[in-house]
Amino acid sequence: MAKIDSKVIFVTTSPRTPAKMIPEIELLNTHFAGQKWNTQTQRAFMELLKEENFFNGEGKKDPAFSARDRITRAPKSLGFVTLKPSIQLTPAGVELTNSRRKEEIFLRQLLKFQVPSPFHKPSDKAAEFWIKPYLELFRLVRHFGSLKFDELRLFGLQLTDYRDFDTIISKINDFREQKAKNKGNYKKFYKEFLYSEIRIIYQDRINSGDTKTRESKDDSLQNFLATQARNFRDYTDACFRYLRVTGLVNISHIGKSISIAPEKIQEVDYFLENTSREPVFIDNEKEYIKYLGNAETPTLLSDNRELLEQKIASEFPEIPISNEMSLTQLKDIFAEELEKRKEQILREQVTAIKDYRLFDEINSTFDQILDNSLYDTPLMFEWNTWRAMTMLNGGNIKANLKFDDFGNPMSTAQGNMADIVCDYDDFGLTVEVTMQSGQRQYETEGEPVTRHLAKLKREINKPAYSLFIAPKINEACIAHFYALHKMNISYYGGTSTIVPLPLNVFLKMLEDSHKASYVPEPRHVKRFFERSNELANTTDNEIDWYNGITNEALNWLNE
Fold this sequence. Notes:
CATH topology of the domain at 356-554: Restriction Endonuclease
CATH architecture of the domain at 356-554: 3-Layer(aba) Sandwich
Shape: globular
Number of strands: 14
Radius of gyration: 25 Å
Distance between the termini: 68 Å
Structural class: alpha/beta
Helix content: 40-55%
């Protein structure tokens, strides 16, 4: 049991991307099912996890703590694993790893997550909790139609008791009215409003002088307010990401808002009406674990055969439905048709991209990425680069990010694969993007980029190269990738041709392909990377190589 001191809504924040817990609980179950969850198994789990392609962390300082952080937060809190008396997946955890309808599994578990619970007991310092946070956040978004990130950060986080729902609605309405009247600088207006709310929420701590935070030795009020403001931003980001994994919401990356997808409103209304708002089994851990791990509750629209048939008939009238079909078969049919529709939407997007109809939009999105003005910049960077590579030249360009039912990007690629993989028939190309800069760019991206390229080489048994794009390239990455051109390492399939380019140079390549009097071909791409190999073999240092290949990129279509 964990004691929580939170004054605002308590939700799971680790892992940041919910889907990343799937391979991790599979690994835990495969190697440790039936064993005790203790320091020994925790350390052993981290040792295995560090060797997996899907893991990007390190867990060096305290492996046991790192293991607890990864398993006892979201996986345990959402009922996917149980650790007493021994390690095992719950029925919900088994479904999450095996089911094709993972969004549905995530949704059921989010709707049951509650505070207080046997897992999370509020301390005397905490707010008065009585809520199923994700259920009420869905209700809040549904009520307003669309809720901005700033509004959820300001007021949604204060919804610690569902019985205060109407009070939060009034606060948001009042904020919107004052915002409309404010003709000054919004950023200043919002900061003042945010800090005012934080002062109210933490009034007792501020009055008693308890303003020291774990993150800093600075105990000034200003630092305290700034720290809580950052925490509020992180909690809100977690709310957005975990709601999004259900596939029921749309995210406006420009407006930084969340809304129920129009096609999903009926499904949301169903569980809002039929799911109890009251926390259960507060003091009975055994019954709570049984309740939380149940893969079939709460009831969703898809569990109601009559409504499911109506939905299938409405969205896919050409699909025959018979009474002989089981409910599971109907669910699978619906899932298959949604997948087919998504693939068709993506094919239509690719056609529009290849015709350069989206050139201006893609360029505009890159400008917003450079300005860091979008809600989820890493996701949009990965998605927009896939669009750019599709437009840049021929080939089959595959993005390994996850799309929702309507072809919108939901989450970035998992750690065991490249962001983008390009098939040009006689050679392959991985494309990796990152918003990281400085030394951290090298520490987090250097080895995975090389590993993903090696993986592609093994899979296609053809020449393969890699393109690494970031707003700014770190010097350590330049040195690392230069050296790999020359180092014959069997673990990575020989030498590795990886070319790092700053985003502005890649944009010039994109512009050149648009202006060219012909459609660029795969041979132009291959010539560029082979030129990198030539430069690496004829230069004495990484700076000359990097300057040379950058110049080649700026003139990549010159015959």
